[in-house]
Amino acid sequence: MQMRFDGLLGFPGGFVDRRYWSLEDGLNRVLGLGLGCVRLTEADYLCSHLTEGPHRVVAHFYARQLTLEELHTIEISAVHSRDHGMEVMGMVRVPLYTQKDRMGGLPNFLANSFVGTAKFQLLFALKILNMVPEEKLAEAVAATQRPKKVAIDQAGGAA
To answer: Are 73 and 67 in contact (CB under 8 A)?
Structure first.
């Protein structure tokens, strides 16, 4: 994922003008600007989501398995992209584990702010691609929905 200029987490991508490109051509053009070495095809398509509101956007989600070498290449090329430091602050790896405290790792990551449908897309991909066991994924989501414990000194000072 990427940390965006506005502090929200999202996936690489951008707007595609359907009059000129197929979805994959447009996406590969945008990814070429930011990541350089990844080419997605129709076979990499996972799902689409409609964002309601004044600016309706259809977010098409693609996923592709990479080797560790390909991932390293992408991370290096991302730092040298023209958008780095302006639109994109950096790449972020999603932790696919939960620590013994049941908050560290994926639950803490899911507590971040995500742009548009990015959080839903992430959870969908983790489930459909079997990257995290379904029960662990449900636990991570539930952990982010529990109220956080108030620090003892804050509770004592509030009295």
So the answer is: no
Compute φ and ψ for 22, nearest 5 degrees. -75, 165
Per-position pLDDT tens, the chain of length 159: 989 999 999 988 777 776 766 777 777 776 765 566 678 888 988 888 877 777 777 888 888 888 898 888 888 877 777 777 778 888 899 999 999 998 999 999 999 999 988 999 999 999 999 999 999 999 999 998 866 555 444 555 554
d(CA 99, CA 77): 31
* Nearest partner of 15 among 2, 33, 27, 3, judged by Cα: 27
Q: Tokens 């639950």 label which residue?
A: 107
Q: What angle do CA 26, 118, 12 make, to 5 degrees?
A: 35
The runs of H, that is alpha helices, within the chain are 23-34, 68-79, 106-110, 118-128, 134-145, 152-157
Query: Which pTM was predicted?
Result: 0.78
Paired tokens of 68? 């560790």
**CATH of segment(s) 2-145:** 3.90.79.10
